[in-house]
Amino acid sequence: MLERNLVDYVISRRQALKLSLVVVSGLATACSADATIGADGAHPAVTPEAGAYPVTISHRHGATTIHRAPTRIAVIGIGDADVLLALGVIPALVPVWRGSTDDGIGAWAESALGARQVPALSEATTDFSVEAVAAVRPDLILAVNNAIDATVYQQLSAIAPTVLRAAEHRDWVLPWDEVTTRIGQAVGLPGRAQELVTDVRNRLAGARTAHPEFAGRTATLVIRWPSGQFRVFAPESARFQILSALGFVPPPALSGAFANGLYQELSTELLERIDADVIVVDNWDRDRERIESNPLFPTLAAVREGRVVKLDAITSDAISMPNPLTIPFALDELVDRLRAIELPN
After folding, report:
1. Cα separation of 25 and 192, whole Å?
2. Which pLDDT does position 181 carry in this prediction?
3. Local structure of residue 343 (DSSP, 8 states)
4. Domain layout of the chain by residue ranges
5. Per residue in 145-158, pLDDT tens?
6. Which terminal residue of the chain, N or C, has fewer Cβ atoms less than 10 Å from its own Cβ?
7. Secondary-structure breakdown of the chain: helix, strand, coil percentages, each rounded to the nearest 5
8. 2-189 sits in which CATH class?
9. More confident residue, 22 or 153
10. Regarding predicted confidence, which is higher, 261 or 196?
């Protein structure tokens, strides 16, 4: 039954995503999404917006200047390929993360990619192969949402112009809208990227307006880590950004707990700190037995009173990398689950 429900869920979300792609990104008029891929694997160059090039983009390890529209874009940043697809651009390489897919294409992006096959970069979030990146002969590398140190950056930039996250941000703690506009600049489509950002912001604002009961309510988003500890994510983290946009805030017990800007790991004896108006659990099905066997988890008020949102693997992945494809994919589902909870007085 669980497998059948998951299949039905994915199909319904794909159908919704097809509609949102037409509204959000105008793929019918995008520059390369419907173009024929060349025999050598190259895509036709993006038709840039007027004045888009040359462009210099500052980042954590300096600045990168791009002089012309790319034809082969190797993507290393998690979720960066979704931004490209929302812009109507087909990547030449996509990153693989450890989650619900092994080919680097989430369920939310399949309809945008269609039947095309794109090489996948394995272990993109840990120890990926620079040689595998070079093998696709990119003329642009996008590694915005990834932890790229100076040594790896030098290796990548020797292959092709490489764009990273902004210097003022931290690894894995990136505002989805800034990532989108940064990638839009790199591929010569800053105006289209801003349109995507505006549309998704409007969707989020509409959901928040429609549900004023969420404003100021406390929420925690947690995952059980292999160590046995619970990892609770900061309000600035990627996973929490949709909840923040809806008006949720962390509980007072976690005030000042996120010194690294991303998460705090809690041992069992500190688990009571995750109690909130709502607890959102990442990858519930995978970790259910171990979570429920924790002696303190059932004692939390949110658990006793049924105020727990249990995310499946696909939705967990989508929320972990907010962007113009994943947010429309996950938003309605998350709001529906939150609406079903009777919040405490």
Report:
1. 8
2. 98
3. -
4. 2-189, 211-339
5. 999 999 999 999 99
6. C
7. 40, 15, 45
8. alpha beta
9. 153
10. 196
Give me the pLDDT at residue 13, please.
43
Both tokens of residue 112? 């945008």
Q: How far apart are CA 62 and CA 76, in angstroms?
A: 18
Per-residue 3-state assignment (H helix, E strand, C coil) for 140-189: EEECCCCCCCHHHHHHHHCCCCEECCCCCCECCECCHHHHHHHHHHHCCC
211-339 matches 2-189 in CATH topology: yes
Closest CA to 105 of 333, 314, 257: 314
Rounded to whole angstroms, how far apart are CA atoms 224 and 31?
42
Binning pLDDT at 50, 70 and 90, where does residue 282 land? Answer: very high
Q: Omega of the bond prior to 119 within 30 degrees of 0, cis? A: no
- Pick left, alpha or beta for residue 133 (phi over 0 → left; psi -120 to 50 → alpha; otherwise beta): alpha
Alpha-carbon distance of 84 to 91, in angstroms, equals 7
Using CA atoms, how far residue 161 sits from 20, 52, 129, 182, in Å, is 32, 16, 17, 14
Query: What is residue 220's predicted lDDT score, i.e. its pLDDT?
Result: 98
310-333 exposure pattern, b = at least 16 Cβ within 10 A, e = fewer: bbbbbbbbbbbbbbbbbbbbbbeb
Distance CA 25, CA 242 (A): 20
pTM of the entire predicted model: 0.88
How many CA atoms, within 13 angstroms, populate the side-chain half-sphere of residue 263?
Answer: 18
SS (H, E, C) 207-223: HHHHCHHHCCCEEEEEE
pLDDT at residue 63, rounded to an integer: 98
Choose among 61, 299, 55, 277: nearest CA to 187: 55
> Cα–Cα distances in Å, from 29 out to 35, 49, 81, 87, 113?
11, 13, 19, 10, 15
What one-character DSSP code corresponds to residue 65?
E
Distance between start and end Cα atoms, the chain: 35
CATH architecture of 211-339: 3-Layer(aba) Sandwich (3.40)
